[in-house]
Structure formats: C-alpha cells, structure tokens
Fold this protein.
Amino acid sequence: MCPLKVISNNPLVIEKMENTFFVEGTPLDVLLEVRKHLGSGDRLVSMPLPANQRLFMNPYRSIVVDEHSAGLSMKSMQLLENAIERFRMQAFNRSSDAEKDFALMDLEQVLTVLKAM
C-alpha cells in the first residue's frame, strides 16, 4: 500500500484520520496547498473536483495524495489547475445548519477513496 496523506480543511477528517495536513480556509485554499505538495513530488489519488454541482457548495474539501510517487505528475498538476480555476468562481455554503452534514459527506468521500486503495 502506498503512503497516503489527506490534505483537508475539514476538522472531522483531521479528527478521524491519520496522516493528515490541516488547511485553514476554503476548498480553494485546500487546492492551493495541494499544489505545493504536488510540486514536491506528491501525486493525486482522489479527484480535486467534486462529483456534482451540489457538492461544489460544500465548504469542506479533502484531497488524498500519494506522498512518495516517482516525481512530478503532469496529469495530477493539470487536473488540479483545472479544479483551481473552477473553484475560483465558486461560492460556498457556510450555513451552520448544514455544516455537520457537509463535514460528514466530505469524510465519507475520503473513506471511499481509501477503501478503494
């Protein structure tokens, strides 16, 4: 199994998972942090774009990366740059009523990626 790291702004993911990197801020801030990790040789494991438009509103974003890949992956970087451009135009739902639900959905997506590995 490859050494995986989760980069996230979701406190629930940080609480429940090991090998995490917390990012204070929006999903865009998470993607900008992921860019730094990719520049250091990490590779995307999970997709940087959400599965559908509704999930774009989620104020939490967690990305799984392989910490010890064989160097800079141009495919990973291209996917990430496309996601950054999309997220720059996105507003996020900061409703306190939905915050727990959004955090749980994000955690479940990470767990699904990790189970598939």
User: Anything to note?
Assistant: Residues 99-116 form the longest helix (18 residues). Strands lie at 4-8, 20-22, 43-44, 62-66.
